[in-house]
Structures are given as C-alpha cells and as structure tokens.
C-alpha cells in the first residue's frame, strides 16, 4: 500500500478495468479524489452529471461517477464506510481565510491536487469539485449543509473500478473540521 | 424585455454593479444560467464553491454565487419564486438518450449555452454545472433526487447583481420533465 502523508497528495494512472483501493488508515480522515480521461484531460469528473444520472447526491457501492461529457469514469465496487460527499469543492487558501480566519500559508486539497496534476498538463482552473471520500456533509430539508466528523474507522476502504483509462489525483485532506480536528495519512493501492 | 424563444438561449455582457432580471413569462419554465469573468473566462461559476461558502444547496435572495477561484460572481437581490437548483448539470444529447430514450437530434441547454458562449472563446468542456433558475429538484434525507414541475407562476422573476464584469449565458430549458411537460420562453433585461 502507498501512503499519502497528512496534508499532501498523489497521482497515478489507472487503466480501464483496474481497481483502486483507498484506505482510511487511522480512521476519520477524508481523501479528495479526481479523475481525468488519460487520453484527453479536458474530460473530467462532474458532480452535476453524476447527481443527474445516478439520481442521488449520496454516492456509494454500485454507483458510477460520471464525466462532464456524460461518460462513466469509475464504478464504486466496494465502500465499507458508505458516507462520501460530492457537494463541496476542494479546500483552498481562501477556504482557510473564510472559515478558519487564517491568513498565512496552509496546505490545501486544491494545492495538493494541482501539484500532482500539473505534470499531466492540467491547469488550476481545470480542477472541478472532487469526490470527497469519507467526508461527512449533512444536509437538511431547507438545504443547509454542515461539515461534521467522518464516521470512517481505521482500515475502512473504498474501491473504484476504472471505466476508461484515467489519470487520478487524491489527497489526505488538509481541512481540520472535515477530519475531526486532526490530520492523518491515506493509503492507496492498485488492484489488478 | 428580451425574449428567449422556447428551447433556445442567449448571452450578454453584464458589468460589475449592473443587475440582470430573468422572468418566467408564462410560468413553470426553467432557465439555466452561467457566469464567466469577462476579463478571464477560465474563471467561471462553481456549484461546489457556492455550496461551501453559502453553506446551503438551496440558493435564493441574499445568497451569492461563487467562482471556481473562490470569488463572488453575483448576488441574488430578488427571487419571487424562491426555488432554484444548482445540483444538476445542463441537459445534453446524452441526457435525452438516457432519460427520454431519444436517439435523434434534440435541442439541449448544453448546446444552447455553448452556441452562445463560443463567440467569447469558451469551449464545450469549459461549461460547468449551471444555476438552474426556477428548477424544482427535490432531495430526500437518503440523498435521492427527483425533478418535479417548477412552482413558478407567470411573471415570477429573479434579479442578479454582478460582483465583477461578467459574460452571461442563459436558456429557456429544453428538457420536458424539468418544465412541467411543455416548452415556453424566458425573458431577460439588464437593469442599470
């Protein structure tokens, strides 16, 4: 298993049919993940298309995640914890100013996704809302959303099966409130 | 008032401080709307950033709509009907295949947004989830979403105030189920 240290990220190529396992090693740690078509990176993950085709905003085992071109990118083939978020965009420097009143440098999922994707020719503005594994965003009938600690336990995992050749980037999330107040590592491995 | 005929679209430039009024002329008609930074079209509307900063998935009077760079693009200063959607991506040809079992040509919001935006150098893959004015998407605690007829009545309107110089595209939506089974026009006017 590859280890993503706290508040950092990684990227990899996943071929069609291959499976990617992402593990919350210690528990209560979110991982933002993004998918791009390996052969044309302008095709990328889309929350809006996914909510539309899957007819749900809560995605788990059995659901597909879709691209902006209405193609299936991955299928979730296992999901031990079962709670993920696809509503909120990756945390960035301005998120920390807004929600945490921080004005100095702080690592962010946006930076960690971008740093690992730029080698594939992907620009900052090409980073859409990520699929936030293990993130626990609650929503009420009046639409109000709130970020609460993940319910994931140590060694909980999710497995994605690629539906096309993909570039994948993922993080160990850097936003305190999303991770129950502490920063932990994330594990990943390709299963052939 | 400018009229967008059924199943078509329009675009315009809206300067910072100007207000745009969008009217459901006959009632029960959705309009998908998109905003881009006029001076750099790589900055565009983001549902994920908006849900994050506004802490709600139901946006109405008083809320801002935010960009992928965490900047405010517009403020909703009036909203007579009050129900809008920001979860689902614009309908496209594949939407009609998937949900309506159509395999021939059909106008779509995606095409009508793109056709009106390409003159500004905006590509198909640069079209994110739009803000769907008057669209009535219900969601349940288990995450399931469903599209039901709009509750908007004839002459209901919404007003956006630009927070930066903007390129705006908007449609009279082409998806039957989103509009109570019929296709109607949409009106818009710039209020100085």
UniProtKB/TrEMBL annotation, chains A, B:
Protein name (record): Urea carboxylase-associated family protein
Domain DUF1989 residue range list: 3-167
PANTHER family documented for this protein: RE64534P
Domain of life: Bacteria
